[in-house]
Design goal:
381 residues, single chain, four-stranded mixed beta sheet, five-stranded mixed beta sheet, 11 strands, 36% helix, phage-related protein like fold, alpha/beta
């Protein structure tokens, strides 16, 4: 909602009807999610309190009846130490005189309590939060134009022929004239979704609560899936012939980038402003050095995948195939999206909670010729 409002403010206009519909729908969804979060937070608190009460309850006392069976071979303290005086003398001989026989006699009489003897009272704590190694950021999608998805299929208007303006040959002579032609780029949205059926027992008795973990994982996997698909579509949409760069020296890379930028500007009104790269290309750029041993692109750093090589905004995305390097104006790449987000419904017949996550997205490259790809001699071990 903030992104839509900010975009309208930047364009110095009011929000459109479609944008207002999106805001109203998101605000309604926000209220539903806040109610669900409050409900399950209370359940988690109740489950934690019940678990604490169970851990603090005393273990039941087991009583046996009947006379014990005497084992003649079993160790008997009364037989080893007939009197208190005998025990005291043994302790003195073991502690003061270091008599090995007295020490061994006391060892036989000592019972050693180990952890293995009482597993029922040893707690097994669960330390949170749950570790999740998935990165839910979407470097590529976040670097291009993001727009709300108006429908499952729609057309993106594009000027295919401009009006004509020329120098008048002489006073009262006919000036230039040419029709304005507007074509359309068809766009079809894809659906990204998944679901899972969780038992009510798993929902009620887990701590941390399983539902919150499942929901967070759905959101992360959705982000990864959509970003990976958008990266693949972006690379496939580029029509320009890849630019060959002989080596990873600063001179060779600069020559290739500047040459591609000049070619791109002949087919686009805006110069390239972004360089998209796979991690191995980022590593090659960061390791590039001048003949004097200085960094070829000093704005790059090991602590960040950002930077501005030759003034370009660097976007490193691990979802690009190895060896990928793309340069062009970010405004010409567009991502349309409508996210349903988390959904859930109860199944009382099997005591299950059916949960899912869904969203709809479409990628569009409005100027394929404005982007350049590069073949760099890079490879990770």
């Amino acid at each position: 909602m903030e992104a839509i409002a900010n975009r309208a403010a930047e364009d110095n206009r009011d929000v459109t009807d479609a944008e207002q519909t999106q805001i109203d729908r998101d605000r309604t969804r926000l209220g539903e999610l806040e109610t669900a979060i409050e409900h399950y937070s209370k359940l988690d608190a109740q489950h934690a309190k019940i678990a604490d009460l169970r851990r603090s309850a005393p273990a039941p006392v087991t009583r046996t009846t009947g006379a014990p069976v005497r084992d003649e071979d079993a160790y008997d303290v009364a037989r080893e130490f007939p009197s208190v005086g005998d025990y005291a003398i043994t302790v003195h001989r073991a502690a003061v005189l270091k008599d090995p026989d007295a020490i061994a006699k006391l060892e036989r009489a000592t019972a050693h309590q180990l952890l293995a003897d009482n597993p029922g009272i040893i707690p097994r704590p669960v330390l949170g939060p749950v570790t999740n190694l998935i990165d839910s950021s979407r470097p590529f999608i976040n670097s291009i134009s993001n727009k709300p998805l108006p429908a499952g299929s729609f057309d993106r208007p594009q000027i295919t022929q401009h009006v004509a303006v020329g120098k008048q040959a002489a006073e009262k002579t006919l000036t230039e004239s040419q029709k304005l032609l507007i074509g359309k780029l068809p766009v079809d949205a894809a659906t990204y979704a998944g679901h899972l059926n969780v038992s009510r027992q798993d929902v009620k008795w887990t701590s941390p609560g399983i539902l919150s973990i499942v929901f967070e994982d759905f959101a992360a996997i959705y982000a990864q899936t959509t970003d990976e698909d958008a990266c693949a579509q972006f690379l496939a949409s580029i029509t320009a012939t890849p630019v060959e760069i002989a080596d990873t020296s600063p001179a060779a890379i600069s020559e290739g980038l500047y040459g591609a930028a000049a070619a791109s500007m002949s087919s686009a009104t805006y110069p390239p402003d972004t360089l998209w790269a796979s991690p191995d290309v980022w590593a090659a750029l960061g390791g590039s050095q001048t003949p004097q041993g200085n960094p070829g692109f000093p704005s790059l750093s090991l602590t960040s995948t950002g930077g501005n090589p030759l003034g370009l905004k660097l976007v490193v995305d691990p979802h690009f195939a190895a060896g990928t390097a793309i340069m062009g104006p970010a405004r010409y790449a567009e991502w349309y999206e409508d996210v349903d987000g988390l959904m859930q419904v109860g199944e009382p017949d099997v005591l299950g909670q059916l949960v899912g996550y869904a969203g709809y997205g479409a990628f569009l490259n409005v100027a394929p010729a404005a982007f350049s790809t590069f073949n760099l001699p890079v490879a990770l071990p």
